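Hey team,

Filing this mostly as a record. A colleague (T.K.) asked me to run one chain through the structure pipeline before their review meeting, and I want the input and output archived in the tracker in case anyone asks later how it was produced. No errors, nothing strange. Just documentation.

Input sequence:
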Amino acid sequence: MIHFQNPAFLFGLLAIIVPILIHLFNFRRYRTVYFSNVKLLRDIQQKTKRESRLQHLIVLMLRILGISALVFAFAQPYIPRNEDNNRNGNLVAIYVDNSFSMEAASREGNLFQDALNAAKNVVDAFSFSDDYILITNDFLGKYSRIMNRDEILSAINEIEISPRSKSLNEIIQLEEHLQASSRKEQVLSYYLSDFQKSRFSFEQISTNKNHRLFLMPLPAEDVNNVSIDSCWFLSPVFKEGQQAVLNVRVHNYGAQDVIKLPLKLYINNEQKALAAIDVKAESYTDYQLSYTLSSSGIQCGTLQIEDAPIVFDDQFYFTYEVLPATRIIAIQEKENSYLRALYGKDSLFIYEEMNVNRINYAQFKNAELIVLDQIKEISSGLADELKKFVVAGGNLLVFPFLEQEKDSWKAFLENKLSCNSYGELINGEVKVGRINTESAYFKGAIERQEYQLEMPSLLRFYGISSPLVPTSETIMELENKMPMLVVSQVEKGQLFLSAVALNDEFGNAHKNALFFVPLHNIGIKSQRQTQLYGIIGKDEFQTIHKKSESAEDVFVMKLRDDGTEFIPEQRRIGNETMIYFHSQIDKAGFYDVEQGGVVLATFAFNFDRAESDLHYYSRNELEDISNNDETQMQVLTVDGKDLSRRIASELNGINLWRWFVGFALLAFLGEILVLRLWGRARYAKN
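Output structure:
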C-alpha cells in the first residue's frame, strides 16, 4: 500500500480542471482564407472531424497525466517497510561525538567535520513537524531541550571539540531524560562517532519497538599511543628537605613495545628528575621518581613525555603543599609534660594548649590535629565543634580520663561521630601483644624484627566497644586481643582512640618508644592535603579549607597559562568552602584560587585518559552487535552521497517520487510530440 509523506499536496489534483476547461472551450479556432484559384486548396491540410477529435483527446489525457504525476511527486509517495510507523511525527535524537579522538584526519578533513555534515543530512531527511534532540559530550544545558528544525541546525554549527567524553550509558540516560519532554511516540536516535571501544559498551543496551537506534560510524584507524595515566605519592606528608617518592603510571596502547621513553618531572618549572622507561605493548608500567623537597608552600608538578601524533595526554599536572609544620591543639584539664615533650618540642609541630574551661573555638579551623587529653566529660558545645572539625577533615586523638563520665563520652562518640566508644575501666597488668606493622602509622618505623621488642606494660586500660565499626583499624593490640590504639574514619577526618592515658596510673606506655612511634606519626600525617589532581568532566568540585568572610569576598579561579578568570559557585560549610565548576574548566593546567589577590590554593586538572585508547569498533563488529534481537539497532554508512535520501529510505521505505517526476516529464514530452508531429506526419503521407 502506498503512503504519502506530504498528503496535503494531493489537493493539487484539482489543477486538472484547467486543461479540461481549455479543451472544452478552445478545441480549435478556424480562420477564413480567401483565394481566387482552386489550386490553393492543395496547400490546406485536410483533416477529418474524427482525427481532430482524437488528437485533442490524446493531448488532454497527456496533460492530465503530467499534472497528476507532478502532484503525486510533491506529495512524496512511498511504499512503507513497516505498516506500524508512527504518523504523528518523529522525535529525532542526534548524538555528535566531539571528543579529542574525532580530530583524526579523514578524506574530507577530519572526522569531526564529517560528523557535523552528516548530522545536518540527518536533519534534512525529516520534516518541520518533527521534534529534535542534540547531544554532545559537554551535556550543555542550552541543548538539553526539545528543538525544532531551525534550532538544531543552528546548534550543530556551534559545536566545538571538547576535552570531555561520555560513556554510551551516560548518553542514553540523558536522551531518555529529554525524551519525556516530547509527545512524539516514534523515537529515532542517530549516533555519529568513531566508536572507541574504551567508551562504548553495548552489553546492556535495550530499546522498545518505538525506539530505533542508528549507529553511524566514522572510519578511524587504530593509532599507537602512549599516555601518562596517573601519579601518586607513597607518603601523603611532605616536609622540606626530605625525599619524596612519586609513582607514575605510563600506559602503552600500541601494538609495539616502547623502549627508553624519556619521562621528565618538573616542580615549579624546575626539572627534578629524568628517567628512560620501557613499556610493553598494550600494557602499562609503574615507575618511581625520587627527588628532594627543596621549598615549602604550594608545589606545581608536571610530568612529561613526547609521543606523536597524539599529544593531549603527554603531560600530567598535579599539585601538593609542603607545610612548615602540623598545627596541634591539646585540650586538657591540667598540663601534661609527656604530651608537651611529644609534640611541643618538635619543630615539625606547632603546639598549642587550651584549658577545657577556656577553649578558643575559632582556632579549630587552623588546626590539623586536636588532642583531648584526660577530659572528664564532653559538653554539648564542645561535642558540636569537634564534630564539625572531624567531618571537615580534621583528626582527633583521645586519651581517656581515669574516672571519666561515661554517658557524655558515649553520646559524643557513638551518637555524634557514629564510632566506637569507651567501655569499662579494666584493672590488671597486661602487655601489648601485637603491633600492626602494616599500618601507615607504623610502616617503615621498625626495620629489623628478629630481636624481641620490649612491649609496653599496662596496669589498667579502658575497653573499646566491639565489634569495631567497618572503617576502623587496630594499630596496637593487647595480649588479651583487646585494642589499645584504634583509628576510625569519620567522613573526611579520623578519630584515634587510645585505651590508656599518658601517665603512670595506666602503666609505662607513655615511656615506651613503641607507643610514641604511632603517636608521632599521627601528628605528622594529620596534615591536610588537597587532591593531587582532578579530571576535566569528572571532578566537578573541590574543597578549600577556608571560608569567605562575606558574600562580596568571593573566591576567583585563574588559569596560570593565559590568565583566564572565572568565579565558580561557592558553598560555605563550616570552616570550609565547596567550589563547584559546572563545566567552566575546559583546559588542562594549574588553576589558582584567589581571594583579594592572594593565592590560597592551586588545583591541577588533566584531560580524561579515556580518549587515549585509540581502538575502535569496526563496521562488521557493529553490525554483529546490531543483530541482537533485543534491540532495534542498525548501522548506517556515512560515506557517499545522498545520505538524507538513504536515511529517509531506511525510515519510510521505497520512495516513489522520482518515478512520478519521470512519468510527468514523459507525459509533457508526449504532448509536445503529438502537437508538433501529428499534422506533419499526415502531410508527409499525402
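Quick notes for T.K.: The domain at 326-524 is CATH 3.40.50.880 (Rossmann fold). The two ends are 50 Å apart (CA to CA).
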